[in-house]
Each structure stands twice: as structure tokens, then as C-alpha cells.
Amino acid sequence: MESLAQIPKEKVNQVEDIKVNEVAILKGVKDEDKAHYVLFASKDDKWKAYTTKKLLVKVDFRLLPMLVLMYTLNFLDRSNLAQARLGTLETDLNMRGTDFNLATSILFVGYLLMQLPSNLLLTRVRPSVYLGAAMAIWGVVSCCQSAVQSFGGLIACRFMLGVVEAPFFPGAIMMMSSWYTRGELAYRIAWFYSGNALANMFGGLIGAGVLANLSGAHGIEGWRWLFIIEGVTTIGIALISMPLLPNFPASSKWLTEEERAFAQWRLVMDAKEADDLSSVTLREGLNLALKDYRVYLFLAFQHLSLVSQTFQYFFPSIVNTLGYGKIETLLLTAPVWFTTFLVSLFATYSSGRIGDRSIHIIILMLVSCVGNVVATATTNSGARFFAMFLMPMGAISAYQIILAWIASTFPRPLVKRSAVIAICNMFGNTASIYGSYLYPKSASPRYIAGGSTNSTVCLSVALLAFGIRLMLARQNKKLEKADEDNIQSRDDADVRARGFRYAL
User: CB–CB of 212/327 below 8 Å?
Assistant: First the structure.
């Protein structure tokens, strides 16, 4: 690697986007890395494109398959209660009325309590070990559900499952935002969040297989086998994940020195500020997040989006209203979620390719709104099954783009971004606490309260997306004017160097 002194002076002078003394960009960058950054900036576009592609192949292969698998199991262990319900779970545990809704919602109480402290802690420990250990523990708790003998025992297990699952989702989003630029992040989050659709798809298939073939095997009910099989699988994958998951770019020994420097430089140029792990304390990062009014807009945005998805925790029961048997019902859920998986990948790829967030979200939420309206308004089986495709296709796909939008709107400093992701995810998931009561068994088959509420919420999310677009567009105009006046710009939350623009 060349030193700063070895770089021809004319090359340094050609660099437009980064200067050694430009504090707004190089804040937090070590002196020995500044030479690397100037060298990278002086390279031509062909070299940058080739080096970026080579780096992304390595990072994608190391990071994405494991995160997708981990999230699939994370959601599978959270949502398998819906499949267990079609077995003898409620009868064996003497559950009545809204007991199942309580068992679903209590998980999110524990989930919320650990979100923020966990994500702040993640910036101070090795993410690979922390997320892997959390996964192993939730696998153990998931297995413990198979041993409960009463409704109270199930409630205790579900609460603890929420506590130990809490670190993973926001931690994984924060980890990805530490490796990918804003333009790259949306599609990677799409692959990651596809674990949701995959969990629902495989959950239905696994549930059908287990309930059909293992009920009563060795004197154990089918729903207990379901918890055992999925919990043990989670523990095994957790142990494998720890040595395979990467940490942050600066400390990743599996990359060369040049690759580590280039990985950091890309993010500096994308956010116009260095991702310095020690530049801001945990308290300062939290305060920066809480003082930023945009956080509260995105908090409401994510919250309403999650309300629109609460049907997925009751999806097998909703599909069961079509009149088929329990095993057939579980099998029918698979094509719905496989289609959702494909649509979500296409939507987020398009979003990242075009550079748009809001318009994609608006269209997808309108699709989900139509699905909710049709499923609620008619009892025709064909129309309702078609509507059941539209509901997750719109809501789940839009949520993936929302996650990327949040992470890219608050790129620096690292601790603030971590706090924002945790705060939005923490309060956003309160939706699942009360949203779990929108689909009581007594409201079958049309679930009018749930469908009507979600239809309204879908429209609200679409309107809020448009409002956020207008807000960020105004801020971009201020940033453009500041660039024209050749001054360092300051908005209400962050200091930004020249060239930064918010994604719309």
C-alpha cells in the first residue's frame, strides 16, 4: 500500500470528494488510513468498480447466507405457535378465549425490554459472538416450550423467548449497515428479511409434516415435537455461526489490509463521515437519536407497518377459514409465502436500482390494503385465497424497504445509528402486543376487526411514506444550497459534509 508521501501531488489535487484536511469527512480516521483513502479516491472508476465487486462477493458470501438462515430460524421459533395451534396445543394446555392471543403478544413484551440496551452493547462487543450466543439461548428456550404442562408455563417460556430473541434483528440490521452503502443496503436487507417469508413457508411445511407423522410418537404430542425439532436446529446453527459471521470492517482479519481500508473508505464516501467506533459514547449516541425529530416520524412509520403485518401470526388460522383440513391448511400457506419471498426480492431490488424508497412503499401498501379489504368483504373462497396472497406480498415487501430507509437516513455516527434502529424496532414492535388481539377465534371467518384495521393502517403507512419523502426532499434542497454556497451544512440532527443526500 502506498503512503501519502508516495502519491503524486497531482493525483491528490485531482480528488474532489475527499481531502486530507477535510475534517467533516475524515473525522475519526486514523492518520495512517488517510493515505489509503486519498489513494482510493484518486483511482479511476473502473478500478473502483472492480474492487467493489470483488469485496462485495467476499462480504456477501460471508455475511448474507448465515444471517438469512439465522433470521429464518429466529422467526420460525417465534411464529411456530401458529402451527402448533392446529395441533392439540390449546386442548392440552386448557387454553380458552383469547389465551392464544395473550401467548402470542407476551413474547413482544420481553422482546421490547431488551432491544435498546442490546443494540447499544453490540457496538462494544464482537457481533459474531454476541448474536450467535443469543441465538443458542433462544434455541434452548424454544425447546423448553415442548415441556410446558400449563398455560402459565407457556406464557413464561414465550416471555423469555422474546427477551433472548431481542438482540438479533436490530443487531443484524446494524451489522449490515456497517458493511454496505445506502444503495447496496436495501437489496441486502431484502435477502435478510426474506427469512420472514421463508420461515412462514417452511413453517407450514414442517408443521404439516410433524403434525401428520409425529403426533403421539414415543408418547409425545405433535406440537411438542415441533418445538423440539426447531429448537435443536436453532442451537446447532448458532454454534456454527459464531466463527463464520464477520464483525466490523476495521477488525475483520479475513480481509487483507487493503480490503479492510477500502471497505471503510466506501462507507466514508457514502455518508461523508467516518464510522468511528469510539468517537461517540453510548450516552451521547442515545442523546443524538432522541433529539432528532425524524426518529419519531420513522418510529411511527415502522410501528404502523408492523401493525399491518400482525395477521401473519394467525395466518394458518386465517387460511383454515377456507374450509380445508388442518394439514391441507398448513400446506396451502407455503405458496403464499413463496410468492411473497419472490415479490419482496424484486421490489427491493427495484428500489435499490432506481434509488427510490417512498413510491415503492406506497404501491406495496396499497396492494396489501386491497388484500385486506377483499379478505374481509367476501366469503368466496377463491377471492379470499387470492386476497391472502396480496396481504403479505404488499406489507412484508414494503417493510423491507422501510428498514433500509431508516438505516440509510441515519448513517453516522455508528452509535447513533445503532440507537435509532433499536428505538424504532423496539417501539415499532409494540404493535404486535395489541395487534395480536385483532384476530380472535370468535371473529372467524372474516375477521372484520382485523381486516378493517389493517386496511386503514396500510393507507396510513402509504400517506406517511409520502410525507417523509417531502420532508427529506426539503432537507436535500438545503444541503444542495449549502454545497453551492461552499459551506459545511448542518440540519437539525447531524453535521454533513459536501455531497450527502437523503434517499427518497
Answer: yes
- Nearest-Å Rg of the Cα atoms of the chain is 24
Phi and psi at residue 246, to the nearest 5°: -80, 165
CA angle, 334 then 245 then 183, to 5°:
75
* Alpha-carbon gap, residue 72 to 69, rounded angstroms: 5
Place of cell 440507537: 419
Asked whether the predicted pLDDT for residue 23 surpasses 70, the reply is: no
What pLDDT, in 10s, does the model give residues 471-494?
999 988 888 887 777 655 444 444
C-alpha cell at 481: 444550497
Hey, CA dihedral for 395, 399, 400, 405, is it positive or negative? Answer: positive
Give the CA distances from residue 299 to residues 147, 152, 221, 421, 428, in Å, rounded to whole numbers and listed in that order: 37, 32, 41, 9, 6
What does the angle CA 381 – CA 387 – CA 392 come to, to the nearest 5 degrees? 135
Q: Virtual CA dihedral for 81, 87, 91, 94, nearest 10 degrees?
A: -10
**Sequence-ordered list of residues with C-beta below 8 angstroms from that of 45, at least 6 positions apart, any chain:** none
Non-local (6+) Cβ contacts of 442 within 8 A are none
**Lookup: cell for 327:** 394439514
Distance CA 80, CA 68 (A): 18
- Separation between Cα atoms, residue 216 and residue 401, nearest integer Å: 43
Q: Write out the three cell numbers for 23.
A: 475534517
Q: At what angle do helices 45-85 and 151-165 cross, to 10 degrees?
A: 170
Give tens-digit pLDDT for 79-97: 899 899 988 999 999 998 8
Nearest CA-CA partner of 502 in 466, 462, 475, 467:
475
CA distance 311 to 27: 46
What is the SS3 assignment for 234?
helix
Take residue 5 and report the three cell numbers written for it. Answer: 508521501
Separate counts of helices (H) and strands (E) for the chain: 21, 2
* β partners of residue 490: 495
Question: Are 214 and 225 a contacting pair, CB within 8 Å?
Answer: yes
d(CA 412, CA 181): 12
Cis link prior to 246 (omega < 30° from 0)?
Answer: no
Whether residue 107 contacts residue 158, with contact meaning beta carbons closer than 8 Å, is answered with: yes
Q: Which residue has the cell 424496532?
A: 425
Angle 431-66-430 from CA coordinates, rounded to 5°: 10
Residue 16: pLDDT over 70: no
Do residues 134 and 239 touch, judged by C-beta distance below 8 A?
Answer: no
- The H or E element that residue 489 is part of is strand 489-490
Q: Which residues pair with 489 in a beta bridge?
A: 496
Q: What is the pTM of this model?
A: 0.78
CA 35 – CA 18 distance, rounded (Å): 11
Q: Does an H or E element contain 496, and which?
A: strand 495-496
